[in-house]
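ok so i was messing around last nite and threw this chain in just to see what happens. nothing serious, just curious
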Amino acid sequence: MVNCDFNVVPERDMDVLFAEAFATDSAFLTFFLDNARDAKTHKVSRLSFPEYKVDQVELSKKDRDGESDITVTITNGTTRIGLLIEDKIDAPAQQEQHDRYIIRGGKQFDTFEVFIVCPKKYLESNQEAQKYPHYVSYESISEYFASKDDSISWFRHQQIEQAIRQARKAAEVVINETAHAFFEKYHDYVNEHYPELDLRTSRNFNGYWPRFATRFGKSYIYHKMNETANCVDYTFPNSKKYYQEAKHISDWLNKHGFHNVQTAETGESIALRIEVPPISYQKSFEDQISDLNKCFDAVKLFSDLAAIMRSGELLIGK
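result:
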């Protein structure tokens, strides 16, 4: 079996994993219902729909009352039942979100059930999550896939395990309310104005060093903004010995109109660096839009560079 490193696991990736499992694994529906528990008391929900099969799977189904992460329609040929599923790794559960699921379910189906799927650590630390009628843990789903001997189940098992570890780390983060409120605006602004950038730092973090994924290997981009650093770093992990090669890239970029690109050592890694205007969480987000755009332009430059290098890899068959 192939070992996989997912780096950061976005909730959307987990939505797709669960949707695919419902659509392609005929035994997953029975397992899911058998393992559902009351989110507050942890008592077994005892859901059973004999002879029912999955008929339709929908992601991000929206109406005026909000959005369901995963909507699974099951049928016995004559009756349809809806399973509305909220998926969480580390993002905050919104107040009354579970109530809106119930409202949507009542409008969409005559019979329905509402679930939250998340790591145990998330449920333990989140009172809103405990208000959902049913709960299925990431841990139980991980065990389900680990019990199988096919390669796609092993792939899914690894992804879920890394999402569980991500949730544990998130639970240990101390939230600074001012920094958190600023980063929520930062996160939303990137999604709206720079959708091509792959921002991986979860919206519920402080976001002192927002992290962006790239298309080139395990390289990634940090927007560093604190008292000691105001720069965008395109980082190549464990690459310290290739400093001169990175220097060639920065020199080339500077000669071709991309000014102020430097090469920097960051621990055992090498980064291509652009100094950017300082950004302060203590100041209004709106008042810093102009400077923030300069920062995002630097991120985009490195993101485009990563895409070019990935294209080069494909051309030579790597």
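not much to say yet. The chain has a mean pLDDT of 90.
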